[in-house]
């Protein structure tokens, strides 16, 4: 019944309205379609707590008291405990406070494999161990999403450095991808039932990740399937 309703709504949308719904209309929000009662989608960073509110069109904090949230341990600190229950509790706090701030999506958790201590984003990634990531990403997603907030697992895939992150071409063979880089994301989809994933900034084997048919269609949409 719900799928039928959605199909009917899709038929009513114009091309411009569809583009607006998948395109940023302001910082951390998409465009809604008022005539069909479709609200904007509101998002926020991040893995250590809901980010401060920004002005709609510039990276400037508006500085309201709504910004007061729990400052959570970073993902690497949570992973170092090897504690599934703690991961779920952290996710639950993140989800509760994101929903309390009116967010539909929280851009967390971060699960890229740590390959160098120089990566400026290591604090928000869990581990260099794909097995540990598989075990902890699932309860964290569950904790977030039980609060009617979508987890957005990031960054798919092989985002292992911040220097030249938009242009660096990460070269990884298929075996390493399957055994090291993909398992956490696959667990997030198949076991954690994450509602969203964020594409990576970098190139992977010659293709920008967010434009890669092999990564997004063949691997994510076809190989990773919810069980």
What does this structure look like?
With 227 residues, this protein is an alpha/beta fold. Helices cover 37% and strands 11% of the residues. The chain has helices at residues 2-12, 15-21, 75-79, 84-100, 130-145, 174-181, 183-190, 213-223, and strands spanning 24-26, 29-30, 43-44, 105-106, 150-156, 169-170, 196-199, 203-204, 207-208. A 4-stranded parallel beta sheet has the order 3-4-5-7. The chain has a 3-stranded mixed beta sheet with strand order 6-8-9, with no helix packed on it. Strands 1-2 form a two-stranded antiparallel ribbon.
SSE map:
Layout: H1 2-12, H2 15-21, E1 24-26, E2 29-30, E3 43-44, H3 75-79, H4 84-100, E4 105-106, H5 130-145, E5 150-156, E6 169-170, H6 174-181, H7 183-190, E7 196-199, E8 203-204, E9 207-208, H8 213-223
Could you report the average pLDDT, rounded to the nearest whole number?
Answer: 92
SSE order, one letter for each helix or strand: HHEEEHHEHEEHHEEEH
Low-confidence stretches: none
Structural class comes to alpha/beta
Helix content: 25-40%
- How far is it from the N-terminal to the C-terminal residue, by CA? 22 Å
What is the number of strand segments?
9
> Which term fits the overall shape?
globular
Please report the number of helical segments: 8
Strand content: 5-15%
Q: Report the biggest beta sheet as strand number plus sense, adding barrel if it closes.
A: 4 strands, parallel
Question: What is this structure, in a nutshell?
Answer:
The protein has 227 residues and is of the alpha/beta class.
């Amino acid at each position: 019944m719900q799928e039928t309703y959605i199909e009917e709504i899709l038929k009513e949308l114009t091309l411009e309205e569809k583009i607006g719904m998948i395109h940023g209309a302001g910082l951390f929000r998409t465009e809604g379609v008022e005539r069909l009662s479709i609200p904007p989608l509101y998002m926020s960073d991040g893995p250590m707590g809901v980010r401060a509110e920004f002005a709609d069109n510039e990276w400037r904090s508006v500085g309201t008291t709504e910004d007061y949230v729990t400052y959570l341990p970073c993902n690497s600190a949570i992973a170092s405990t090897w504690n599934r229950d703690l991961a779920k509790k952290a996710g639950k706090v993140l989800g509760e406070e994101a929903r309390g701030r009116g967010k539909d999506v929280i851009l967390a958790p971060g699960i890229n494999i740590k390959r160098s201590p120089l990566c400026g984003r290591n604090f928000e990634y869990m581990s260099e161990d794909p097995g540990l990531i598989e075990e902890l990403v699932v309860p964290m997603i569950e904790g977030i999403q039980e609060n009617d907030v979508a987890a957005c697992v990031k960054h798919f895939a092989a985002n292992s450095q911040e220097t030249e992150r938009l242009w660096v071409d990460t070269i990884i063979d298929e075996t390493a991808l399957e055994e090291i880089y993909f398992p956490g994301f696959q667990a997030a989809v198949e076991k954690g039932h994450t509602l969203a994933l964020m594409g990576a900034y970098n190139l992977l084997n010659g293709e920008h990740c967010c434009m890669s048919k092999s990564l997004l269609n063949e691997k994510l949409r076809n190989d990773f399937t919810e069980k």
